[in-house]
Write a structure and sequence with these properties.
With 311 residues, the protein is α/β, with parallel strands linked by helices. The protein has a single domain, classed as Alpha/Beta hydrolase fold, catalytic domain (Rossmann fold, 3-Layer(aba) Sandwich), CATH 3.40.50. It contains 8 helices and 9 strands. The radius of gyration is 19 Å and the shape is globular.
Length: 311
């Protein structure tokens, strides 16, 4: 397949379409959703990589409509080479909901993949990871949802820590390393698809949560809202977010011992100290680190996003 690296030129490899082209001739018939791969030349790795672009139902049958864009950054366990391993990005989050669970989410969903950066070297998780965990879009019905983990310790609340364990950019091998790639991907999507550049939202889980706090702090003019899930921000990133009054809704698991809820307070309190008026923090006190399963399975987050617009 011929591919292009020009930012304004996108060659799509459509993976699956849910109806025949003939059906689109029917009056008032919505075009089916699509899951596409888009190739780009990564500045971070110097290699060609792919990312997913999900086009919602109605995208092709409403050619004059501008669609909101959701950039999703996955967690640590879904890293890969962004080629044959890109499918691991489907395991969690809004792309799982829209594609595997067949939910009618009215967003263009963009999902790149974080490189391994050597984390697969003698790492039991990646050594044992198999494609069996990748959800499939079924002809009829949907795959079963994975249950949240059972946590053996009680719910509790703790004061903020004296010092956060990570610097402003987050973990050392995190999404900040793809900062320029992510901006390039957004530019490709906004110019190459029928996208509303005033409704670009950031969301993601764990490592992805750290990543979009960083991206929002460095490029606040690009985003209409951010929704970090089980990933806290650093106070040093908050002044630009507050200055641009980017709506923030962040989520934590009350029993999360990987990213404890009290780590979220320094950034959230800093936002309020700068006069930010639109900051929400929801703790799912009964859940652990995989609280994202409940959050993305609901409706509130998507409804809230659709209410936000960059002026």
């Amino acid at each position: 397949m011929e591919k292009s690296h020009l930012p304004a030129t996108i060659i799509l490899a459509t993976l699956v379409s849910c109806a025949s082209t003939d059906s689109l001739t029917l009056k008032n018939m919505k075009s089916p959703p699509e899951l596409n791969r888009v190739s780009y030349l990564s500045e971070a790795t110097g290699k060609e990589r792919d990312y997913f672009v999900y086009l919602p139902a109605g995208y092709h049958s409403e050619p004059n409509r501008k669609w909101p864009v959701m950039l999703f950054l996955h967690g640590n366990g879904e890293r890969g080479n962004a080629k044959d391993e890109l499918d691991y990005v489907l395991v969690h989050g809004p792309l799982f909901e829209a594609w595997a669970q067949k939910r009618d989410l009215p967003f263009i969903i963009v999902a790149p993949q974080l490189p391994m950066y050597g984390m697969d070297d003698h790492n039991d998780y990646f050594d044992n990871r198999t494609r069996d965990i990748i959800p499939q879009r079924l002809e009829t019905g949907v795959p079963s949802r994975r249950k949240t983990a059972e946590i053996p310790y009680p719910m509790t609340a703790e004061p903020p820590p004296d010092e956060l364990p990570h610097p402003p950019e987050g973990p050392i091998l995190g999404w900040f390393k793809l900062e320029n790639d992510l901006i390039s991907i957004l530019d490709q999507v906004v110019t190459g698809f029928s996208a509303d550049e005033n409704r670009v939202y950031l969301t993601g889980i764990s490592y992805g949560g750290f990543g979009f706090w960083y991206m929002a702090g460095k490029h606040p003019e690009r985003f209409a809202a951010i929704a970090p899930v089980v990933g806290y921000g650093h106070p040093d990133l908050t002044e630009p977010i507050a200055r641009h009054q980017i709506p923030v809704w962040t989520f934590a698991g009350g029993r999360d011992n990987a990213v404890p809820p009290n780590h979220f307070y320094p950034a959230l309190n800093a936002l309020e100290s700068y006069g930010h008026k639109n900051v929400l923090f929801t703790i799912h006190a009964d859940l652990g680190h995989d609280a994202w399963k409940r959050i993305y399975a609901g409706h509130d987050l998507y409804d809230w996003m659709l209410e936000q617009r960059r002026e």
